[in-house]
Structure formats: C-alpha cells, structure tokens
Amino acid sequence: MNASAHHEGLTRASATRALVTACKVAGLGADQAELLRLGENAIYALPREGVAVRVARSDTGDIEAKVAKELAVARWLMAQGFPGVGPRDDIPQPLRAEGRLVTFWEYIPPSRTEPRLTDLAMLLRAFHALPEPGFALPALDPFATMWRRLDQAHGVKKQDVDFLSEACARSEAAFHEVVAQRPTSLVHGDAHRGNLLGHGDRVLLIDYEAVAVGPQPWDLLPTAIAVDRFSLPRPDYEAFCRSYGQDVTTSEDYEELRTVRELGMTTWLMQNAQSGAAAEEFAVRMESLRKEDRERHWHAL
What we know:
Phosphorylase Kinase, domain 1, two-stranded antiparallel ribbon, transferase activity
C-alpha cells in the first residue's frame, strides 16, 4: 500500500480521491457521487451511472484476497438466485487507485420498503441453508481483521490500543476452541440490519466481505447484542428469534462469542475515532469494556 494512504487512513477526503481516480479509469462520472457509509470501507452511490462504488482501506495482499472473495461470493449468490447485490461485471475490477482497491456494484435506489429484523432472520435462514460454493472460503477468524486494525491504529490513546490488544489475546484461543467444537457452514460474518436493502417489495442481504465458514450462531450475535447495547426492544428480538428459529443467548458459549463480537465492533470504530462523535463513542465503549459493564448503552454510528 502506498505510504501516504497508510498514514492518512480511510477518511472522506482520501476515499473520495480514490473514487475519482478509479471512476476516471472506468469511464464513470463521479461528480455527483454520494457518500453512503464510511467504516471498514467507503461506499458511494453514483445514481446517474447506476453504480455503487466500494473503496477499500488499502490494496495490501490481505485486502486483495478479501475483495476477490467478495466478488466471487456475490457472483455465486446471484447464480443461486439469492436476494443479494451483484458486481457490475461490465466494468473491469477491482481497480487500484491511490493505494486502495475499488470495486463497482449494482446501484439499488432508495425504496419505501423498510427492512425489518424478521427480514434479516429469514434471509439468514436462507443463507445458512445454501451449500458451500465450489471455491475455497476461509474459516471464520475475526481476529485477523482486529489485529490488523490494532497494528495500524492511529490518533487514539496508546493505553486504549494496549487494552484492546490484551483483550484480544485473552479471547482468541477461547474463540477458536468454541469454533472447533461447533458444526460449521456458510456464514455471512457481518449480519445486521444495516446490511439489508429494500428493493421494490423485496429485501436484499448485502456486503460479503466477511463471508466465511463458521458456526451459524455468529450471524445471530449482532441482533442479540443490540438488546443490551443499542436498546433494541425485547419484543423485536423475540420476533427475530421466532423467525430464525433460535435464540443465541441461550447458548452456553454466548458470552464468549459476544465478547469477541464487541471487541470487533470497538476496533472497527477505532479506525475512525480520531475526533468528533466517533471519538466520543469510542470512549464510551472503552470505558464499558474496561469495567466489564455488559449493559452500558452504545450508539450506532
């Protein structure tokens, strides 16, 4: 990865530079681009072009492997008739731009259909029932991404990075032990309502960067955690459990898996926690983790 990209991190400004460069190569107009999301990646909408653009944090080997997997999974899901979003294969991709990898996807315009948690549950049931594709998928390992984030941390306190590193080291072996004892299958890896899109009268499951082979309960954790952390009403959670057919909080290893998931959520936020609302929320999450306060309210950003 280019050194300046590594130093700056993925910011609105750096992501936009990569977007403009990549769109110029692809022959797309980026003058009306709308930033939809800035997190692990930057997601832009180009409504006039009918394209959504995904800008990755870098173009290093691990990111390149994730991008290749994401494209392969999306194409496979489209072939399976699964309700998802496919890449724009009329555009050569991925493209390297400003030290980042850029991919191009079908643009789904805003819809009146508001995805519900029961939609997520039913899509996960269908996703988990799919056979494994005819290409290799990695074993579920959220720690690889967390260690990369911690290694590249900037603009946050060293004591916070040290605390998260120690917490990850404590949890990693226990996580792999839990995974080794459970049956595994295809998992989405980042299954939450934010990765649903309304499309006409349908709901689509998007974002395949974290797709892996692992225990299915991993995909149920974000909704379960949302009851304590994000004030999800319990009746909504119970409806989700009925639709999927399982309540992950009754599992004997729920607390272990929840800890790992919350570390992932916190290291994800850390990447953009240099100032503003993200920095304030990162401080809230760090305090609750240090105090082992499992009911402290968090805010979704």
